Backbone:
């Protein structure tokens, strides 16, 4: 018993020691890692020993890596009796190791990787080993370093999820083959096993199809691109385009395979297909000339459901299948406007002939027909969650992007699911306050949010949960024109996602991840990989406090420094106050905050105004609750003293789809007021419209309300988003605001016929 206790004490000491030395910064965190005493010395005397051809490719990969990055040539032997000073591939003799499982045992005299013969475990063991090696940069002209110390450790590891994916959109912006390889290298570093390649969309067709050459000679090029935000509606007129030849694709597929990554190609249908129609107008319903799209967004020109279009799709898929050896083909299926199908005699005849109820069922018919064809070729489809609408094709895998609901529905129907909900997995969203960030599509997905992502919804029972095969993040590139920008949006959120996908929930630890990820920053710098440092930024949140005060909480990653703040940002940071606990804000303030370490600014300075007024923190009730998609902070969002910044991040707004906004605010006691202000958003391109009518009311008892008159909505337009009403000073306890939704989107506008959104950000009363 005594010895047992001593053992625990000693091993705990060793662990703490290793942690404080920050020796190990492996991402994703291995599921079992035990730092040991001692070190292995890697040099040109070291050998790699792999006695079976099944994993030679992995051994070659390691040998080449050591040569390229460390300038050490470590020979590869197939038969070497004396395995000291060697990196030994040990083939699982028990037959119990899973395909992706590995053990990595670094001892002073040898390194052993144990894994299943022919599986991916050796490669993952190598990736962990690579992350343990000291960082090194060859310097031209300097003599090479001859030995490298590798700390001893025992690792036993296997992934939590079977599908660990990352997506890359090469349609909106095209990226060179070399960059796609760099992207794949990053995925390999973090033990991803799937790269979802979004090859076709309205803005460019990027895969050579021999039978239809115009797809690339015409469809891969556009006459200009959108610049700035979508709302700006500005374009350049620079011809833009590019595509991958079939040889390029074979090269990339092989490169990925060497890294145990399957490429999942996406050929979009029936929507997002305007570039194909630009090449071959007969693929559409109208047989009219269209251009490869210059603008971002969704277009009405989609594949027709006629037989000749299906034959084209079959031909394309035949060539796709020959290039991509994986079991799955992604056929898109999202965001297909049905307007042209409604007006198309061929589609309407199809509807009748097949006994289909409506165009949603026609979409389902389309997807099923393609799915059936692929089945004859021994391939299964993956599609975005819209493929559920109108009936899911048998055997289809659903990628749930509009939240978790599609995935839940599919799992309950016993279909495989890949989770990629926008809120957590869209790496085209902002990762920090937009003010100092490059233009992004919108949304807010900071690093902590990605790390906190749980792919398996609690609403599924244990049987249903098994259908969630994993998750992926998406890199839509409308707003990423350069490789550097893609890398900026990717890193380090990619590292956070890898840990969600690989590491068991109970072994995840955010603060330890933040420690490790900073060491990866050094690696990114060495390998010329761009990354965002927003993890050093300060975030804020507000809570109502007594009367109309608010409580301001500042959060940052503690391990990175301390938060300092000021209400006078003209002062040097050395004169700012250290933040310990939430701050009471009794009156309007311009605050600034930042993380400092040893007096040095780490990230960016957060600057916001909190406008304390008579409405701040007061109770308000809605007649109709906001949409669940735009109700992050609840009613307090409208009286928290913060006016939303543009570009929009959604947690600063409440939104109603089709519904009016009617709210009643209780000031708590009869109060003198003379100014009422409310902010709405005017962003018609994103279906968000100013209210059609606006009216303020007052009441002393909350029962009988007196109108202050209708506000002219033309006046709102002039003022863009904030409506102010000045009155004679009057006394009231309750204020009611009624804002009428603009209704249906008028024809000729994006989203014509759909419900208008009404977005409100803040009410202030003085
Ligand atoms: C998607 O983001 N339209 C799948």
Residues:
């Amino acid at each position: 018993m005594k010895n047992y206790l001593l053992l625990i004490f000693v091993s705990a000491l060793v662990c703490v020691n290793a942690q404080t030395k920050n020796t190990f910064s492996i991402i994703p965190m291995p599921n079992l890692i035990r730092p040991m005493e001692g070190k292995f010395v890697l040099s040109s005397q070291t050998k790699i020993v792999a006695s079976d051809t099944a994993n030679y490719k992995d051994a070659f990969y390691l040998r080449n890596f050591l040569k390229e990055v460390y300038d050490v040539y470590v020979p590869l032997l197939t038969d070497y009796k004396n395995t000291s000073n060697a990196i030994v591939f040990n083939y699982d003799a028990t037959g119990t190791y899973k395909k992706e499982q590995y053990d990595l045992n670094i001892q002073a005299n040898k390194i052993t990787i144990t894994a299943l013969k022919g599986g991916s475990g050796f490669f993952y063991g190598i990736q962990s080993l690579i992350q343990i090696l000291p960082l090194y940069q060859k310097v031209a002209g300097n003599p090479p370093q001859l030995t490298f110390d590798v700390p001893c450790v025992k690792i036993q590891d296997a992934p939590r999820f079977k599908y660990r994916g990352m997506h890359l959109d090469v349609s909106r912006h095209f990226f060179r083959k070399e960059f796609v390889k760099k992207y794949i290298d990053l995925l390999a570093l973090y033990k991803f096993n799937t790269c979802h390649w979004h090859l076709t969309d309205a803005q460019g067709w990027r895969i050579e199809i021999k039978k239809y050459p115009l797809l690339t000679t015409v469809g891969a090029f556009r006459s200009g691109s959108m610049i700035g935000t979508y709302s700006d509606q500005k374009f350049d007129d620079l011809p833009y385009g590019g595509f991958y030849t079939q040889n390029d694709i074979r090269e990339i597929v092989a490169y990925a395979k060497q890294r145990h990554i399957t490429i999942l190609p996406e050929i979009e249908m029936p929507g997002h297909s305007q570039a194909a129609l630009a090449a071959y107008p007969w693929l559409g319903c109208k047989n009219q000339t269209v251009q490869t799209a210059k603008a971002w967004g969704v277009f009405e020109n989609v594949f027709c459901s006629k037989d000749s279009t299906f034959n084209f799709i079959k031909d394309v898929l035949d060539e796709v299948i020959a290039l991509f050896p994986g079991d799955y083909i992604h056929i898109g299926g999202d965001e297909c406007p049905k307007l042209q199908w409604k007006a198309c005699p061929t589609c309407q005849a199809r509807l009748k002939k097949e006994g289909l109820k409506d165009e949603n069922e026609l979409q389902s018919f389309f997807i099923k027909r393609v799915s059936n064809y692929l089945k004859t070729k021994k391939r299964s489809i993956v599609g975005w969650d819209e493929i559920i609408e109108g009936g899911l094709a048998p055997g289809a895998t659903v990628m749930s992007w509009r939240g978790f609901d599609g995935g839940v529905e599919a799992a309950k129907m016993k279909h495989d699911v890949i989770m990629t909900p926008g809120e957590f997995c869209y790496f085209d969203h902002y990762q920090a306050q937009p003010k100092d960030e490059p233009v992004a599509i919108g949304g807010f997905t900071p690093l902590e949010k990605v790390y906190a992502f749980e792919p398996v919804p609690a609403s599924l029972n244990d049987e249903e949960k098994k259908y969630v095969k994993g998750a992926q993040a998406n890199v839509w590139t409308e707003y990423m024109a350069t490789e550097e920008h893609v890398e900026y949006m990717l890193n380090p959120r990619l590292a956070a996602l890898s840990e969600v996908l690989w590491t068991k929930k109970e072994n995840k630890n955010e603060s330890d991840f933040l420690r490790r990820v900073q060491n990866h920053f050094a690696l990114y710098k060495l390998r010329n990989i761009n990354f965002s440092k927003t993890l050093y930024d300060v975030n804020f949140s507000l809570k109502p406090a007594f009367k109309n005060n608010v409580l301001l909480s500042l959060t940052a990653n503690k391990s990175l420094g301390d938060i300092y703040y000021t209400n006078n940002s003209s002062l040097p940071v050395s004169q700012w106050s250290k933040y310990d606990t939430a701050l009471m804000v009794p009156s309007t303030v311009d605050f600034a905050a930042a993380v400092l370490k040893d007096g040095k600014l780490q990230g960016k300075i957060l600057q916001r105004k909190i406008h304390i007024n008579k409405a701040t923190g007061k109770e308000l009730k809605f007649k109709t609750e906001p949409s669940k998609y735009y109700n992050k902070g609840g009613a307090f969002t409208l009286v928290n003293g913060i006016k939303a910044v543009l570009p929009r991040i959604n947690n600063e707004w409440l939104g109603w789809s089709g519904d009016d906004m009617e709210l009643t605010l209780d000031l708590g006691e009869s109060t003198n007021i003379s100014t009422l202000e409310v902010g709405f958003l005017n962003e018609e391109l994103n279906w968000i419209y100013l209210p059609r009518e606006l009216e303020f009311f007052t009441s002393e008892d909350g029962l009988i309300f007196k109108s202050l008159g209708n506000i002219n909505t033309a006046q709102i337009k002039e003022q863009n988003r904030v409506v102010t009403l000045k009155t004679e000073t009057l006394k009231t306890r309750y204020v009611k605001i009624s804002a009428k939704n603009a209704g249906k989107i008028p024809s000729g506008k994006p989203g014509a016929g759909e419900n208008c959104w009404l977005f409100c950000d803040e009410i202030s009363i003085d």
User: Anything to note?
Assistant: Residues 1-22 have pLDDT under 50 and may be disordered. The two ends are 72 Å apart (CA to CA). The pocket of acetamide is lined by residues 334-335, 384, 401 (CB under 6 Å). The chain has four domains: 32-157, 163-534, 537-610, 619-765.
